[in-house]
Write a structure and sequence with these properties.
The complex is a heterodimer of chains A (142) and B (355). Chain A is α+β, with helices and mostly antiparallel strands. Chain A is built from four helices and six strands. In chain A, helix 3 links the parallel strand 4 and strand 5. The longest helix of chain A has 17 residues. The two termini of chain A are 31 Å apart. In chain B, strand 6 and strand 7 form a beta hairpin. Classes of the chains: A alpha+beta (142), B alpha+beta (355). At the A-B interface, strand 1 of A face helix 6 and helix 7 of B.
Chain lengths: 142, 355
């Protein structure tokens, strides 16, 4: 799994499944916190500092988002020590309104990977000719 | 598990053993073709009936005449040498891998070190490179049975590995330009980039590629690799001006139409250009093509997955490279209308505005 973070979005590419993802700004903030090693409590605390909204709703949406990341195998739980609180925003900046974090999966490229791996080999140990296919097989349009 | 150093040593030994097959068979000689790619010299040495392997590179042929087998007369070694032959010449070497070592994207476990890489191009060819020696090899099962898409983008994985050593990256994108400036058209297969690139070339834009290019970040640049172009077989008739350079007219029911453009459109094919814009084509219901701003993340989603998923060895460094690129170069959506002429006009206008 590899990722690239922008100010308001994260692009995540899963090299095993062939699925790639985009997030919105709030999900990108949560992702940054996860990368920083924040605990769940620290994450929620930082979100409450950075965003306005019902605390219970913020927490429940955050739990749901983490569950989605876990289900997609983009993160895994750890029992290690927290890296400490990492505030998302500096004091004095206007808080933004919290909304449900978005994780958008894209599966249109899975065919580039799912027809592999090549398991069939011939007597030379080379891939068998039967698995030959064109890479980046097109869809509609030209 | 074998230590990484030992694995690389084994891979290097295997590479030398295979290359020796070429060297032995290259007596009395190979057909040597020299090309200039991204300003660097690339020597392709072909044994047997493999002349077709360089058709897509013809536009980059070096100005000096082809050299003999001993490479004499050169000032300095090539930046990359690729030995090309097929099993008809030397047979297939015994595998140095187990079946379970064959991984997605043609990768071979144990052959992915910094220096020595090996990949299968589907089931039709083995590509290996020793980046320390700047020596690659491409051993095909059979030149005669190579699929058309291998001919349209030969040695792709070798160029990808070599480009990384130059600070460049191979991308899955088309590129067209005007007066030394160019745009990348970033979309997965079927996304409209090939047709837009071909229409642009026929309308007088510069052509740098329809499927794969090399790009650099500092400064943003695009370098042509292939002068081939592919469109759906059913759409070949839309390009009557290119009929004479259609490679597979008798197989359009099962293959894409493959054009080799170097001889037909030499005046518009360019080896490199300044990269001014990244365009993300999208199909729309409108009559005319329009463009609108896109975020760097939008461009990365269009550029990175198809580049990385189909390129052996591409991973985090590739994604970070492309992330730097989309942050440096302005990005726009290109909403494709039914009027194809308007697509070319919009691209030309954007190039003029962003020169």
């Amino acid at each position: 799994m590899i990722h690239e973070t922008f100010d308001d979005e994260v692009v995540i590419v899963d090299l095993e499944s062939g699925v790639y993802y985009s997030t919105d700004a709030i999900a990108a903030d949560i992702w940054s916190m996860i990368l920083a090693g924040s605990s769940f409590e620290e994450l929620v605390e930082a979100l409450l500092t950075r965003y306005t909204g019902e605390p219970a709703l913020i927490q429940s949406h955050t739990v749901a988002f983490l569950d989605r990341l876990l289900a997609a195998r983009l993160i895994e739980p750890t029992d290690g020590p927290s890296a400490g609180t990492a505030a998302l925003g500096e004091s004095g900046l206007p808080r933004r309104v919290f909304s449900e974090p978005r994780l958008e999966p894209y599966t249109d490229m899975q065919d580039l990977l799912l027809l592999d791996p090549i398991h069939e080999v011939d007597e030379t140990g080379w891939p068998a000719a039967a698995v030959e296919r064109e890479p980046a097989k097109t869809g509609d349009g030209t | 598990m074998e230590p990484a150093v030992a694995r690389e040593a084994s891979a290097l030994e295997y590479f030398e053993r295979i290359l020796e097959r070429f060297r032995c068979a290259a007596n009395p000689g190979a057909l040597d073709r020299e090309f200039t790619i991204a300003g660097r010299s690339v020597l392709v040495r072909v044994l047997g009936a493999g002349e077709r392997m360089t058709l897509a590179l013809e536009h980059l042929a070096a100005k000096a005449p082809a050299r003999g087998a001993d490479g004499s007369g050169r000032q300095g070694a090539p930046d990359l040498t690729i030995a090309v032959w097929d099993a008809a010449t030397s047979g297939l070497p015994a595998a140095a891998w187990r079946p379970e070592d064959l991984r997605p994207r043609g990768e071979i476990r144990g052959f992915g070190s910094e220096r020595v890489r090996a990949y299968f191009q589907g089931a039709c060819a083995l590509a290996m490179v020793d980046l320390g020696q700047r020596q690659g090899l491409y051993l095909a099962r059979s030149f005669e049975s190579l699929p058309y898409y291998e001919l349209s983008a030969p040695f792709r994985s070798l160029f990808h590995a070599w480009a990384e050593t130059l600070g460049l990256h191979l991308v899955h994108a088309a590129a067209v330009g005007l007066r030394g400036d160019a745009v990348l058209l970033a979309a997965r297969g079927g996304g409209g980039k090939s047709t837009a690139a071909l229409l642009g070339a026929l309308a007088g834009l510069d052509y740098l590629g329809d499927d794969y290019c090399l790009v650099g970040c500092k400064p943003p640049s695009v370098f042509s690799l292939y002068s081939s172009a592919k469109v759906e077989g059913r759409d070949a008739s839309r390009f009557p001006a290119l009929a004479s350079c259609l490679w597979n007219p008798d197989r359009l029911d099962t293959e894409k139409a493959l054009f080799f453009l170097a001889q037909r459109l030499p005046q518009c094919i360019r080896p490199q250009a300044r990269l001014r814009l990244i365009l993300v084509p999208r199909f729309s219901d409108a009559d005319r093509t329009t463009s609108r701003p896109a975020s760097p993340a939008d461009a990365l989603r269009a550029l990175a997955p198809s580049t990385i998923f189909q390129q052996p060895g591409a991973g985090a460094s590739s994604l970070h490279f492309l992330g730097r690129l989309v942050r440096r170069v302005p990005c726009r959506f290109l909403d494709l209308g039914a009027d194809r002429d308007s697509t070319v006009a919009v691209i030309a206008e954007l190039l003029s505005k962003n020169a």
